[in-house]
Structures are given as structure tokens and as C-alpha cells.
Design a protein that fits this description.
- The structure is a single chain.
- A hairpin with a 5-residue loop joins strand 12 (about 275-280) and strand 13 (about 285-290).
- The chain is globular.
- It is α+β, with helices and mostly antiparallel strands.
- The strands form six sheets. The protein has a seven-stranded mixed β-sheet. Strands 11-3-2-15-21 form a five-stranded parallel β-sheet, with helices on one face. It has a three-stranded antiparallel β-sheet with strand order 6-10-7.
- The chain is about 30% helix and about 20% strand.
- The longest helix has 19 residues, at about 470-490.
- It has 16 helices and 22 strands.
- Helix 1 packs parallel to helix 15, helix 2 (about 100-105) crosses helix 15 and helix 7 crosses helix 9 (about 220-235).
- It has helices at about 45-55, 100-105, 145-150, 155-160, 165-170, 180-185, 190-195, 200-210, 220-235, 250-265, 305-315, 320-330, 375-385, 400-415, 470-490, 505-520; strands at about 20, 35-40, 60-65, 75-80, 85-90, 95, 115-120, 125, 130, 240-245, 265-270, 275-280, 285-290, 295, 300, 335-345, 355-360, 365-370, 385-390, 425-430, 455-460, 495-500.
């Protein structure tokens, strides 16, 4: 199976209205004795922090508990039942073109982003037969949102008449971080109820955003969902199309970046968990693993929510009481399931590389890996089969895993009936519950990059940045912000950052939305 052609969009620059965030002025790099930094966590946030620090002459040691880098976008080797070596991961990730800082990190080793492949559409199917997508939607706000409503079969004239325009207007005047003051106390589910979106549009468009956080819309802050709407529809002209790595994550992304870090003097300690951190008398920190204890001048905590809670709970002198309470209060999103199947026959040739689904009893999307990933394409070409991946988000913690896995495969047969007769050569099922939950009313309690200890900073997608970023881009952005906070201490200029604009771009729509915003606060 050949990979799709590579659109020019993967090479293009930023939206002309993208917002630039310049760091404080300073020296180009460290002069004299090199300060040391421990970066705890080798996911996207930790890699971004380590990169910015190492480039500027800081002596970085990166600690990662797993034997691989990339965190939730990492991958590891496995061997299939037919003897084929393969790479397994936690599943599909979309690299949207609004992810300016993440893409900037990847450009360190891939200046033209040649290792990313653009997919031609973001198709959406509902079990009632409704089909939708974003390929033909205009990219320039506000025509992007209006064009989607006009072109989408999920919006009909009678549905539009039933919608509440005053309730919908906050979508058109998103201001960050003000959106949290306005909407963090409302669930995504209740917000959509108040607007009265037609069910089809609700399931196929807006709940796609809420489930991107692996959360039930009833438990997710409406502010996070509305921020996603802003990032993809009304804050950016990049659109909703995206790129994916053309090879497994380690080969395409993280192994080259690890080599880049080592060339800049960083030490990478995979398979090494940090168990305890204690402030030292000279302002630094003692970082203890199972094997050794090492002093570092500064520390970046770039962990997922469970890892951050666990490390802070076990490091009794870290931070102050209120900060420790905020960390302890972090919650995880419900479990999610990734099922990857190696089938003995191909799916139909017209099946897209990625498909978002709704109404399929837990199935949230389907990927056909040989459409874009070289390792899967080689296996499919050699065997005549297909490599299919299924995602199910927000599962109940007490659900039977075996039952859920079988049910997910059954839903695949409903979506792609030709797979019902396929034999499964091998399968991998992953259950995880380590993504952060952004609950109703939770924004104010989330940790920020800076902590009460100026030598200790935090990074990750759980961090409150006050910027219009989310998911992998929030991880990368917070990692650079953490590095910048430390570099500022040493008088060194940090990483320049970019985001989509911090407010809606349609002047008329913003002016209409202001009275509704005031009424909402009242």
C-alpha cells in the first residue's frame, strides 16, 4: 500500500496572525560554569525543556522511567506471532498545523518536517449514517466555522432555527485566559445543551474535541472544549487537517531528537525512575533514583498527573503546602483502550487512514496504519493484510477489559464490514488511565510552570499556561516555558514561542458576543 501524497501544507509557515511570545532579553548561551538541570520525564514536555536548556549550554540530565522516550507519544518494540518485529505505541496522534511549538521542536532534526505525512481529510461517521469531514471547509476565520455549518449535512435549516444564538456567542469571542473565568464552571455537555446544537453536529464535531481529552463531556470543563473550538476554527487559519509521522514514533521523532540532545551534551537516562527529590542547603536539589543520588542546580518536573502526584507525595520537602495540595488534587481522565489488530486480509481500498466515529458503542476512531506508516505498510505488502487500530475513550474503571476488547472489535465489523471475515494474525490491547482530567471548576487549582521554589518548575499538558494551547502543543509549550523560566535566572535568552491569536478574529462576531458574555458572568 502506498502512502498518500504529501501536501505542501506540511511545509508552510505559520498563520500570518499567529501570536509571537518573545522571551526576556539575555545572553545567547551560558558563559563560564555550566549550571545543571534534572529534567524528570522524557515525554514531549520534558524533551522540549531539555532541548531549550541544552542548546544554551546547560548541563542537562534527562530521567525517564520507561525504556523509551516520547511519553504518551512514545513507542516500544514487540514481536508478532508470525515472527515479525514491530513497534507498538499508545495509538494514533494527530500533529495539527497549529502546533507551532511542537513542530518547532521536531524541526531540530527534521527542518522540512519531511518525516510527517499530511492526511487529506478528517472524516467523521455516525452510526445513524451521517457522514461529515473537514476537507472542503474554508480555513480562514470566521468562514471556517460558518462554512462548516453551511457545508455539513449535520446542520439543517430547521436545526439552526432551534439553536440559541446568545448561548453560542461565547464561541466567537474566546479570550485566553478569560474563557476560563466565563466557562470553567460549566460542563461541556451542559454548554452544548444550552446552545441546542443539532445532535449530529454535536456528536460529530464538538464532542470530538471533548473526547480528545479522553473525558466524558459531562465531566469536562466547557472552557477547554470552547478553547479547542477557538484553536481550530476561529483563532487560526490552519484548519482541522493534520499530519502524522510516516514511521513509528521512535524512528520518526524521538531517536533523532535523542541524538540531537546528546550532541548538545545532555545525558539521557531511560529506564531510570526518580523516586525522591529534596531541596539542598545551597539552593539546588538532590535527585534520587534507585541507583544513585545526584545534586542538580534546578529541576524540571515533566511528568504525567499520576507520576507528579506520586513523586511530590514522596518528596515531603518539595514546594510549600498549598502547592503540594494543588498537585495532590490533580485527577486522571477515565481509562481508555487502544486495540491494534494485524489482519490477514486488507480493509477496503477506499477506507481512510483515520476515521472519527460516533454512536458506535464506545468506538471513537479507526486508523488503517498502512495508509501512512512505513512499518505497517511493509507488513501489509508482504502478507496481503491490514494493520488496524481502534480507540475507545472514557471507559468505566470497572468495565471488563476482555468484554470491552471484544465489543470494540465487533464495532469495527459494523464500521468496516469486510473485516468481519478477516482473521486476526496478532493483536495488542493497551489500557491506560494517566491522562489529566480538566474537570468543571478545576482550572484555578491546576499547577503553573513556576512553583514556590524558583529552582523548581513544572511542565506538561496538565499545566495552566494562560495561552491558547492544548494537548501535545500544551506539553511542548509548557516545556519551553519551563526552560525559559530557568534560563531567565541565569540571564540567558530563552525560546521564542508562537500560538494562535489569544482572542477570536471576527470583529463583528466578537462585538455581538460581548453582551452575551456579560450576561453570562452576571
Amino acid at each position: 500500500m502506498t502512502r498518500p501524497g504529501r501536501p505542501d501544507a506540511t511545509r508552510h509557515g505559520r498563520d500570518r496572525r499567529a501570536r509571537v511570545l518573545a522571551p526576556p532579553p539575555g545572553a545567547r548561551r551560558i558563559e563560564g560554569t555550566r549550571p545543571t538541570t534534572a529534567v524528570v520525564g522524557g515525554g514531549i514536555a520534558g524533551l522540549a525543556a531539555a532541548t531549550a536548556l541544552a542548546e544554551r549550554g546547560v548541563a542537562v540530565t534527562l530521567y525517564e522511567r520507561e525504556p523509551f522516550l516520547g511519553g504518551r507519544a512514545g513507542g516500544w518494540p514487540t514481536r508478532l506471532a508470525d515472527g515479525t518485529p514491530a513497534t507498538m505505541s499508545r495509538g494514533f496522534h494527530a500533529f495539527f498545523r497549529q502546533y507551532y511549538n511542537l513542530r518547532g521542536l521536531l524541526r531540530r532534526t527534521d527542518p522540512g518536517l519531511e518525516r510527517l505525512t499530511g492526511l487529506p481529510d478528517y472524516p467523521l461517521w455516525h452510526s445513524d449514517g451521517l457522514r461529515d469531514g473537514f476537507r472542503h471547509v474554508p480555513r480562514t476565520p470566521p468562514w471556517s466555522a460558518l462554512g462548516f455549518a453551511a457545508l455539513s449535512p449535520s446542520f439543517r435549516l430547521r436545526d439552526l432555527r432551534r439553536m440559541s444564538l446568545p448561548a453560542a456567542l461565547p464561541l466567537f469571542d474566546v479570550r485566553v485566559p478569560d474563557v476560563y473565568a466565563r466557562l470553567d464552571g460549566v460542563s461541556a455537555h451542559d454548554f452544548l445543551d444550552a446552545v441546542g446544537f443539532p445532535p449530529g453536529a454535536r456528536h460529530l464535531a464538538f464532542e470530538v474535541f471533548s473526547r480528545s481529552f479522553f473525558a466524558d463531556p459531562r465531566r469536562l470543563s466547557a472552557a477547554e472544549m470552547v478553547l479547542m473550538f477557538h484553536i481550530y476554527f476561529l483563532g487560526s487559519a490552519e484548519g482541522l487537517l493534520f499530519d502524522v509521522p510516516g514511521a513509528p514514533f521512535p524512528a520518526a521523532l524521538w531517536e533523532p531528537l535523542a541524538g540531537y540532545l546528546r550532541r548538545h551534551g545532555a545525558r539521557i537516562r531511560t529506564g531510570t525512575a526518580v523516586e525522591h527529590i529534596a531541596p539542598a542547603g545551597d539552593g539546588g536539589h538532590e535527585v534520587a533514583t534507585t541507583a544513585e543520588e545526584t545534586r542538580h542546580d534546578t529541576v524540571v518536573l515533566a511528568l504525567d498527573a499520576p507520576g507528579l502526584r506520586r513523586l511530590v507525595a514522596g518528596s515531603g520537602r518539595l514546594g510549600d503546602g498549598p502547592w503540594r495540595e494543588r498537585v495532590a488534587a490533580l485527577r486522571d481522565a477515565p481509562p481508555f483502550l487502544v486495540s491494534r489488530l494485524w489482519l490477514d486480509r486488507p480493509v477496503a481500498p477506499d477506507r481512510p487512514a483515520f476515521l472519527g466515529t460516533g454512536g458506535y458503542a464506545g468506538l471513537d476512531n479507526v486508523s488503517v496504519l498502512e495508509r501512512y506508516e512505513d512499518e505497517a505498510a511493509r507488513w501489509a505488502a508482504r502478507t496481503g493484510g491490514s494493520v488496524v487500530e481502534l480507540h475507545a475513550y472514557a471507559r468505566h474503571p470497572r468495565d471488563s477489559r476482555e468484554t470491552e476488547q471484544k465489543a470494540l472489535i465487533g464495532e469495527l465489523h459494523r464500521v468496516y464490514p469486510e473485516t468481519a471475515g478477516a482473521g486476526i494474525v496478532d493483536a495488542r490491547h493497551l489500557w491506560r488511565s494517566d491522562c489529566p482530567l480538566f474537570p468543571v471548576g478545576g482550572y484555578a487549582g491546576r499547577p503553573t510552570v513556576r512553583t514556590p521554589d524558583p529552582a523548581l518548575v513544572v511542565a506538561g499538558d496538565l499545566v495552566r499556561t494562560g495561552l491558547p494551547v492544548a494537548l501535545m502543543e500544551r506539553a511542548a509549550t509548557s516545556g519551553f516555558l519551563a526552560a525559559n523560566a530557568l534560563l531567565e535566572r541565569w540571564g540567558v535568552r530563552g525560546q521564542t514561542l508562537w500560538t494562535v491569536p489569544g482572542r477570536g478574529r471576527g470583529v463583528l462576531l466578537r462585538s455581538l458576543a460581548r453582551p452575551a458574555a456579560g450576561a453570562g458572568r452576571g
